[in-house]
Amino acid sequence: MNDPLFNRFQSLPEAIEPERDLWPEIATRLDRSPVTATTRVAWPVALAASVALVAMTAAITWRIASPAVDQVPPAQTLASLIQISSDSEYTPTPELLSTRTELIYSLQRNWSRLPAESQRIVADNLLEIRDSLTAIEAALSQDPDNASLQQLLHTTYEQELAMLVTLNRASHSLPIEVEL
Amino acid sequence: MAAVARVTPAADTDESSLIRAAAGGDQRAFEQLYRANVGRVYALCLRMTADQMQAEECTQMAFVKAWQKLDTFQQRSALSTWLHRIAVNEVLAQKRSDKRRRNYLEVVEELPAGTDVDTRVEVSGSDVDIEQALQSLPEGARQVFVLCVIYGYTHEETASTLDCAVGTTKAQLHRARKLLQARLN
Question: What ipTM describes this predicted complex?
Answer without folding.
Answer: 0.78
